[in-house]
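quick q for whoever's on today - can somebody do inverse folding on this one?? i tried earlier but teh output was garbage lol. tokens:
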């Protein structure tokens, strides 16, 4: 039985690698996709919400084309900038974010 592969999107390569290692240690088969190669470049992108949203959609389309059907946004700032629910609906892919997890936990308690 093969595991489903999950795309991990982080702000930088380091953030992405941390997410990949964490979720791999939990038994998921993962592949990382950084929004920017370095933290400084990611910080600059944060100042331009439309550009960062466009970059995330570009990455998600790449993930979909590679046959993955789930994404984890492993970045608090990124999850607060993009509208993951709308992107997920438009791109027909499951997206989990820290923000969606916080909402889920809040509804439990």
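ok took a stab at it. sequence:
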């Amino acid at each position: 039985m093969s595991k489903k592969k999950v795309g991990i999107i982080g702000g930088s390569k380091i953030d992405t690698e941390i997410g990949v290692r964490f979720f791999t240690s939990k038994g998921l088969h993962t592949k990382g996709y950084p929004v920017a190669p370095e933290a400084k470049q990611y910080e600059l992108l944060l100042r331009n919400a439309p550009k960062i949203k466009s970059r995330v959609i570009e990455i998600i389309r790449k993930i979909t084309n590679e046959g993955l059907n789930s994404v984890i946004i492993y970045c608090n700032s990124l999850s607060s900038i993009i509208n993951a629910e709308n992107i997920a609906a438009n791109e027909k892919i499951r997206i989990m974010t820290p923000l969606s997890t916080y909402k889920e936990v809040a509804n439990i308690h």
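fwiw The domain at 5-108 is CATH 3.40.50.1860 (Rossmann fold). also The chain has six helices and four strands. so keep that in mind when u check it
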